[in-house]
Design a protein that fits this description.
129 residues; alpha+beta; Alpha-Beta Plaits; 3 helices; globular
Length: 129
Protein backbone atom coordinates (compact mmCIF):
# COMPACT_ATOMS: atom_id res chain seq x y z
CA UNK A 1 0.00 0.00 0.00
CA UNK A 2 1.31 3.44 -0.89
CA UNK A 3 0.83 6.41 1.43
CA UNK A 4 1.72 9.92 0.27
CA UNK A 5 2.55 12.64 2.81
CA UNK A 6 2.38 16.38 2.32
CA UNK A 7 5.62 18.33 1.97
CA UNK A 8 6.03 22.13 2.15
CA UNK A 9 6.98 22.58 -1.53
CA UNK A 10 5.80 19.64 -3.62
CA UNK A 11 7.39 18.88 -6.96
CA UNK A 12 6.14 20.50 -10.09
CA UNK A 13 6.84 17.79 -12.63
CA UNK A 14 8.54 19.08 -15.72
CA UNK A 15 8.37 17.53 -19.16
CA UNK A 16 8.58 13.72 -19.33
CA UNK A 17 12.19 12.57 -19.13
CA UNK A 18 13.37 15.45 -16.94
CA UNK A 19 15.54 13.87 -14.23
CA UNK A 20 15.15 14.34 -10.51
CA UNK A 21 16.67 12.56 -7.50
CA UNK A 22 14.92 9.87 -5.45
CA UNK A 23 16.16 8.29 -2.25
CA UNK A 24 14.69 4.92 -1.37
CA UNK A 25 14.95 3.26 2.03
CA UNK A 26 14.10 -0.40 2.58
CA UNK A 27 13.35 -1.92 6.00
CA UNK A 28 13.90 -5.59 5.23
CA UNK A 29 13.50 -7.23 8.62
CA UNK A 30 10.70 -8.06 11.01
CA UNK A 31 9.20 -6.13 13.91
CA UNK A 32 8.18 -7.70 17.20
CA UNK A 33 4.88 -5.79 16.81
CA UNK A 34 4.43 -4.75 13.19
CA UNK A 35 1.35 -2.64 13.94
CA UNK A 36 3.17 -0.64 16.64
CA UNK A 37 6.18 -0.25 14.35
CA UNK A 38 4.11 1.13 11.46
CA UNK A 39 2.08 3.35 13.79
CA UNK A 40 5.27 4.94 15.15
CA UNK A 41 6.80 5.35 11.71
CA UNK A 42 3.71 6.77 10.01
CA UNK A 43 2.74 9.09 12.87
CA UNK A 44 6.17 10.30 14.01
CA UNK A 45 9.04 9.56 11.66
CA UNK A 46 7.32 10.95 8.57
CA UNK A 47 6.86 14.29 10.39
CA UNK A 48 10.66 14.60 10.54
CA UNK A 49 11.11 13.44 6.94
CA UNK A 50 8.66 16.03 5.63
CA UNK A 51 10.89 18.74 7.16
CA UNK A 52 13.91 17.93 4.99
CA UNK A 53 14.98 21.11 3.19
CA UNK A 54 13.93 21.09 -0.47
CA UNK A 55 11.99 17.81 -0.22
CA UNK A 56 9.53 17.48 -3.11
CA UNK A 57 7.81 14.15 -2.43
CA UNK A 58 7.38 11.66 0.43
CA UNK A 59 5.79 8.23 0.13
CA UNK A 60 5.76 5.20 2.42
CA UNK A 61 4.99 1.74 1.02
CA UNK A 62 3.83 -1.10 3.24
CA UNK A 63 3.51 -4.65 2.04
CA UNK A 64 0.41 -6.38 0.82
CA UNK A 65 -0.20 -10.09 0.92
CA UNK A 66 -0.80 -11.61 -2.49
CA UNK A 67 -1.54 -14.98 -4.02
CA UNK A 68 0.23 -16.26 -7.12
CA UNK A 69 1.15 -19.51 -8.79
CA UNK A 70 4.16 -17.89 -10.46
CA UNK A 71 7.54 -19.14 -9.23
CA UNK A 72 8.79 -15.71 -8.11
CA UNK A 73 10.65 -15.42 -4.83
CA UNK A 74 8.58 -13.83 -2.09
CA UNK A 75 10.18 -11.40 0.34
CA UNK A 76 8.79 -10.30 3.67
CA UNK A 77 10.07 -6.72 3.89
CA UNK A 78 8.27 -4.48 6.37
CA UNK A 79 8.34 -1.24 4.47
CA UNK A 80 9.94 0.94 1.84
CA UNK A 81 10.03 4.73 1.55
CA UNK A 82 10.68 7.22 -1.19
CA UNK A 83 11.66 10.85 -0.86
CA UNK A 84 12.35 13.03 -3.89
CA UNK A 85 14.48 16.10 -4.49
CA UNK A 86 15.22 18.23 -7.54
CA UNK A 87 18.86 17.09 -7.72
CA UNK A 88 21.53 14.95 -6.05
CA UNK A 89 22.92 18.16 -4.54
CA UNK A 90 19.56 18.90 -2.87
CA UNK A 91 19.52 15.36 -1.44
CA UNK A 92 23.07 15.80 -0.12
CA UNK A 93 22.10 19.10 1.51
CA UNK A 94 19.06 17.46 3.15
CA UNK A 95 21.15 14.55 4.47
CA UNK A 96 23.57 17.02 6.06
CA UNK A 97 20.80 19.11 7.65
CA UNK A 98 19.73 19.11 11.32
CA UNK A 99 16.65 17.13 10.24
CA UNK A 100 18.88 14.09 9.69
CA UNK A 101 20.00 14.29 13.33
CA UNK A 102 16.36 14.48 14.47
CA UNK A 103 15.58 11.42 12.37
CA UNK A 104 18.50 9.46 13.87
CA UNK A 105 17.26 10.31 17.36
CA UNK A 106 13.75 9.16 16.45
CA UNK A 107 15.15 5.98 14.83
CA UNK A 108 16.52 5.01 18.25
CA UNK A 109 12.95 5.09 19.64
CA UNK A 110 11.45 2.75 17.00
CA UNK A 111 9.68 -0.32 18.37
CA UNK A 112 11.99 -3.35 18.28
CA UNK A 113 12.82 -4.77 14.85
CA UNK A 114 15.54 -6.84 13.23
CA UNK A 115 17.10 -6.89 9.80
CA UNK A 116 18.90 -4.47 7.52
CA UNK A 117 17.87 -0.97 6.54
CA UNK A 118 19.21 -0.22 3.08
CA UNK A 119 19.41 3.19 1.36
CA UNK A 120 19.52 3.81 -2.39
CA UNK A 121 19.96 7.20 -4.11
CA UNK A 122 19.15 7.32 -7.81
CA UNK A 123 18.23 9.51 -10.73
CA UNK A 124 14.59 9.12 -11.79
CA UNK A 125 12.94 10.01 -15.07
CA UNK A 126 9.20 9.79 -15.66
CA UNK A 127 8.66 8.60 -19.21
CA UNK A 128 4.99 9.56 -19.45
CA UNK A 129 2.87 12.02 -17.48
Amino acid sequence: MARAFAVPEPALRNAPGTPYCTYLVSYEGEAQDLNAWHAHYLEKHTVHMACFPSIRELEVYTRLDWVSVLPWPRVNFMQRNKVAFDSPEALTQALHSPVRHEMRADYKTFPAFTGPTNHFAMVTRVLRP
